[in-house]
Specification:
Radius of gyration: 21 Å
Shape: globular
Number of helices: 1
Low-confidence stretches: 1-34, 338-347
Structural class: mainly beta
Strand content: over 45%
Strand order of the largest sheet: 1-2-29-28-27
Mean pLDDT: 88
Helix content: under 10%
Largest sheet: 5 strands, antiparallel
Order of helices and strands: HEEEEEEEEEEEEEEEEEEEEEEEEEEEEE
Length: about 350
């Protein structure tokens, strides 16, 4: 057979494979779309049944990262190298922070609500006064792509999903611990790339990883558990610290004490958000938000958060609003309260 025929047949094969993949994606998208509802309702002992249906667009500007203050009133978002601060009670932008020289790769707000940390591909982490917008400190961290404050407010943890980048830049392996009182590097835990980081509610344990998830005791750097999470996308501890949720191609629930797999959810998740009361979990699945009661693995419903994948999710205003962000901006979902039917809580 001539080289030309080989090329023609090879091209036909590639076209067929592409057509098959496009068809599969189309069917999957239709399948997800069929499950997206106009309203999702969540049981609440305070308000009865809290339902989410209509969203409000905060901005249509491409948004890469978001984080919310502990009281849920301030939202920080990033677009390229710029950070925006929003008042969620008014829906108005409060302030814009500039100073990074490359994409902002991660955001976090301290437990006392006073400090915003922003990591960037410019190889720095900047600490800002959240109220005034003043730059407090620049930490020369290398390229960090995930950061988290410890709940006791004493430590900032950072990590990088790559050790060596395409342009030859090197990042520190493992989780870097920064002493916030001294505003300087303190220690390193582990020696692997890091996609996600989470502290336990009592600040004693730290979960981090990339292809697997490692659970460490912070004070001694002792490795306590290694769990087969799969390629990690997100992490969150339960409010009592007894279980750990991992996002991957399959969302999984683990016992912190034993490392035992307790439950595998039938979905993958690119981001996870647990409500302040720990009763509601939102998982980002493609461009949708899936709502669950994690303690009983009860599926509550799905809303469309974006026309794009790469969705980020969080809660605001003390858990009363749900926030999603992606390439088409930021959407806020405000609830409507309905009385729960008799016997809804198993009375």
């Amino acid at each position: 057979m001539s080289q030309k025929k080989h090329l023609i047949l090879g091209g036909v094969g590639i076209i067929a494979i592409v057509a098959l993949l496009v068809g599969a994606y189309f069917l999957l998208d239709k399948s997800i779309a069929a499950r997206v509802s106009n309203r999702v309702c969540i049981p609440s002992y305070v308000d009865g049944l809290v339902c989410y249906s209509q969203h409000q667009s905060l901005t249509t500007e491409q948004t890469t990262k978001i984080t919310v203050s502990p009281d849920g009133k301030i939202l920080a978002s990033s677009t390229h190298d710029i950070i925006h601060l929003w008042n969620l009670e008014t829906g108005k932008k409060q302030r814009t922070l500039s100073g990074h020289r490359d994409w902002v790769s991660a955001l976090a707000i301290s437990p006392d609500g006073q400090t915003l940390a922003s990591a960037s591909l410019d190889r720095t982490i900047k600490l800002w006064n959240l109220e005034t917008g003043q730059l407090l400190k620049t930490l020369y961290s290398g390229r960090a792509t995930t950061i988290a404050f410890s709940p006791d407010g004493q430590t900032l943890a950072s990590g990088s999903r790559l050790i060596k980048w395409a342009d030859g830049t090197l990042s520190r392996p493992g989780v870097q611990l920064w002493n916030l009182a001294a505003q300087e590097w303190q220690d390193t835990i582990g020696d692997q790339p890091v996609v996600a980081i989470a502290f336990s509610p009592n600040s004693e344990l730290l979960a981090a990883g990339k292809q697997k998830t490692y659970l460490w005791r912070v004070s001694t750097k002792q490795l306590l558990q290694t769990v087969n999470s799969g390629d990690l996308t997100a992490l969150t501890f339960s409010r009592d610290g007894e279980t750990l949720l991992t996002g991957s191609s399959r969302m999984k629930l683990w016992s912190v004490t034993s490392g035992m797999l307790l439950h595998t959810f039938g979905i993958g998740a690119s981001d996870l958000a647990l409500s302040p009361d720990g009763q509601t979990l939102v998982a980002a699945v493609g461009g949708t938000m899936q709502f669950w009661q994690p303690d009983i693995e009860d599926y509550l419903g799905m809303l469309r958060g974006s026309s794009y994948s790469g969705l980020s999710v969080t809660f605001g205003l003390n858990g009363n609003t749900v926030i999603s962000s992606s390439s088409d901006g930021i959407r806020i979902w405000h609830p409507n309260s309905f009385a729960a039917p008799e016997g809804f809580f198993g009375q």
